[in-house]
Design goal:
The protein has about 270 residues and is of the alpha/beta class. It is about 30% helix and about 20% strand. Helix 1 links the parallel strand 1 and strand 2.
Length: about 270
């Protein structure tokens, strides 16, 4: 049995478990399972590996996308740039060789842990088909772990961005400082906050929605509900909208590609 799974806390619901379980059934991939591993403290990660031998691949969600990194033997360039890992490939390469390579991870195991960030791929590939010449400046709502891949992708696409937060942070502005004119001047708005996630469907980020135009694109990383209040307010202003479901599908497939590969990805 080849085992895969997701670590994070809390794990009240999981797109990944549903997605991969369905994938294994539909594609008749026998002898594979995908489980949830609730992990409140990252220090318990080595113990989890001991208790669940045979893990071939692990997805990582909040709050561990950053603090998992010291436990890995090797981290891809993109994940290092972003500063977050959401996909781990477990290989049988010797940690002795890893030591020669200067790669240090979980001690006392006969396998190697490689870290990747598939959120980058998921966000970029789902965003690019929607971009127009109007989308040269963006607002990123929130600056938590979910914003890491968004900032990286926008930088790669040469889209200037401004981060908006609830609390004062260096290089960010506060939600209360946003004006309709500022919203109008940033034709791409990406919500990386959890505000509006089910069951709190009557909530949305507090921005001047009257500044949104038909040229705008509102992208919400939330996928449940499929149409958040944030997106509804954009539709009311006549603009394009996108939820986070395709991003999750793309990052999941990228994880599967990495897990089943025999070589490292860049």
């Amino acid at each position: 049995m080849k085992k895969f799974g997701l670590i994070g806390f809390p794990l009240s619901h999981s797109f990944s478990k549903r997605y991969f379980t369905t994938k294994f059934e539909n594609e008749k991939i026998d002898g594979h399972s995908y489980e949830l591993f609730s992990l409140e403290n990252i220090k318990d990660f080595p113990k989890l590996l001991d208790e669940h031998e045979g893990l071939c691949g692990i997805n990582v969600t909040v709050p561990h996308k950053k603090n998992i990194m010291p436990y890995l033997d090797w981290i891809s360039h993109d994940a290092k740039e972003v500063g977050a890992v959401n996909c781990i490939r477990v290989t049988s390469e010797s940690p002795v060789q890893a030591a020669f390579d200067g790669e240090l991870g979980v001690k006392g195991h006969n396998f190697k842990l490689e870290g990747y960030n598939t959120d980058i791929y998921g966000f970029e590939e789902s965003l690019k088909p929607l971009l127009t010449n109007a989308h040269t400046k963006a607002l990123i709502l929130g600056n938590g772990g979910a914003a890491c891949a968004v900032k990286y992708v926008l930088g790669q696409l040469d889209i200037e961005y401004q981060i908006v937060t609830r609390r004062a942070e260096e290089g960010c502005i506060l939600f209360g400082q946003l004006t309709p004119e500022m919203v109008a001047g940033h034709k791409l708005i990406v919500n990386t906050t959890p505000v509006g996630t089910s069951p709190n469907v009557d909530e949305c980020p507090h921005i001047p929605y009257e500044g949104i135009t038909p040229e705008h694109l509102l992208y919400d990383l939330i996928y449940n509900p499929a149409q958040t209040l944030f997106l509804t307010k954009g539709i009311e202003q006549g603009c394009m909208t996108k939820n986070g479901y395709q991003m999750l599908e793309l990052q999941a497939e990228r994880s599967w590609e990495i897990w089943t590969s025999k070589t490292k990805h860049p």
